Amino acid sequence: MSARMTGRERLLSTLRRQPVDRVPISTYELTAFGPWAWAAEEPSYQPLLREVTARTEALPLWGPYMPPSPDEEPSELHSWQDGDYTLTRETVHTPKGDLTAVTKHTQNVKTVWTVEHFCKSENDITRYLSRPFFPMPVDSSEFTPLNHAVGEQGLVLCDTGDAICSVASLFEFGEFMVLAMTQPALIRALCEQAHARIMHVLRATLEAGCGPLFRIFGAEYCTPPYLPPSSFREFVLPYVREMVALIHQYGGYARIHCHGRIGQVLDMIIETGADAIDPLEPPPDGDITLKEVKERVGDQLILFGNMELKYLETETPQEIDARVCEMMDAAKSGGGFVLMPTAAPINIPLSPRTEANYIAFIEAGYKYGIYD
Q: CB within 10 Å: which end of the chain, N or C, has fewer?
């Protein structure tokens, strides 16, 4: 292929399994676009973001908003300082009593930790299940301006959690694992409630013309060693399969986001009908190599991955170059591969080593990713 493609054309052709000029390169959550592009405001990230914007396919994350019903009491937020951390308590009113959760964050690390979860007792679960569902209009108004801003550089990646993501996040993770094994009917009831809300928002998003690429996250909560594959079949597969089918009804593409050990659930991920998967962490963090994934899925899934962030943060540019070469050897043949890190840096300021390795990652993507 002689003509140079735009980023949008390259991604769409990859999703459609059509010929492309080179393997698309994504830096995932490290982007200058979108509501979560906090790095665009950080001086230490600016040189790298200029390179990312000029030379890679943009895939900024975006999600819609469903306002609370007028019949619902609004949740209450109270924040306070504890040293370098800002803590926020959220109180949600339900017909059977209040629920509270506490999160914390700090300015120099762009993530949020939950230190107290909404469900800490059986009474809390009863309260959560008592919440009425009012299918309010969904606000997707931010999609169009973001889509225009991205333009031919890539695609907006429409983001949605699945049912088990909503449910698992209600609990301390150890407590969730125990409940999933000992009280599966209770977890199913919570999943059914969450799924109804998710499908309402997803359908409204699709009807608003958003897409075509969607990321569905949450499946990793039901992968080994946390839970057995039977839990994935019970709490992930039926709900995600419905989400994927709805996305396909509107001509969209669904990408399953699943960290960790996917080897024992890969066939079920295919069974969802999804079009793509990320981030494909290699062993020892994952349990299957990129080459093995490619051999098992064939042309059933587009592969996004599998450069681990820890390599970009700790290795040398020469080592990154060698890793990209190995990834291309494993997954480039026949198309259906997007070179991508498994995560994005969250520290401020950006480390010079990390910056140099990202540049090497992009350079190697061009060096080894050209199709003849």
A: C
